[in-house]
Amino acid sequence: MVELDNLDIKILTQLQSDSRKSYQEIARHCLTSVPTIKSRVDRLLELGIIRKFTLDIDHSKLGIAEAILIINAKPLAVNRIAEELLKLEEIKELYTTSDSDVAIVSRIAGDMQHILTVQDRINLTDVNDIRVIPVKNPYRKDATIPLASSSITLSCAYCERKVTGDAIRKKFNDKDYFFCCTTCQGEFEKKYTRLLTNA
Questions:
Q1: First-residue to last-residue Cα distance in the chain
Q2: pTM
Q3: What pLDDT was estimated at residue 116?
Q4: What pLDDT, on a 0 to 100 scale, did the predictor assign at position 159?
Q5: Which of 57, 66, 74, 117 has its CA 20 to 30 A from that of 10?
Q6: What pLDDT shows up at residue 39?
């Protein structure tokens, strides 16, 4: 698991609410500099925490139909069917479940004629039941995850206590370390320097 500090969480929260926000706007909100925000975002991209900056389109306003596809399949067929479905452009979200009644649930968007033919375009071997349910009124909820209240925690690299408040971040040999206080940072630095000189 990748460890994040409070600034990383603040940046992710800002981008999650609106990925169009400029680095300047995020820096102002996080009370830091634009170069700091840029380097943090670059790091989050490099680590794969941010996968892409995307756009959320309201399909109903464009006259695009939506449906829920529910497939009950034998356990050994679930991954195969999921992979086949993911190749179809109509599939917008797909989840496999551990429930014995439902194996695959996905959201489909596109032309209703194409939506109804999805079942004709996949191998139905080992499928017990398949249902396509047209969506009448999509009610959207904000898809952001409350990062600030999540269970992401940071431990001090020296004393290993949980960091509360803002962590102190220091790079050693191109690796980020986080500390709960300047005392721990200083002690860690002394120990690190001793290890390097004795090596």
A1: 29
A2: 0.48
A3: 81
A4: 86
A5: 57
A6: 92
Q: For residue 94, give the nearest of 122, 61, 52 by alpha carbon.
A: 122
Rounded to the nearest 10°, the torsion over CA 160, 163, 169, 175 is 40
Token pair, residue 199, equals 């090596």
Q: What angle do CA 183, 188, 191 make, to 5 degrees?
A: 130
- Picking from 15-24, 51-60, 109-118, which range would have the lowest pLDDT averaged per residue? 51-60
What is the full DSSP assignment across the chain?
A: -----HHHHHHHHHHHH-TT--HHHHHHHHTS-HHHHHHHHHHHHHTTSS--------GGGGT-EEEEEEEEE-GGGHHHHHHHHHTSTTEEEEEE---SS-SEEEEEEE-HHHHHTGGGGS--TTEEEEEEEE-SS---------GGGSS---B-TTT-PBP-SSPEEEEETTEEEEESSHHHHHHHHHHHHHHHHH-
pLDDT 10s digits, 147-175:
554 555 667 888 878 776 677 877 777 67
**CA pair distance 159, 177, nearest whole angstrom:** 12
> Which residue, among 165, 153, 106, has the nearest Cα to 132 in the 3D structure?
106
The residue to which tokens 């001090």 are assigned: 156
Residue 62 CA to residue 53 CA, distance in Å, equals 22
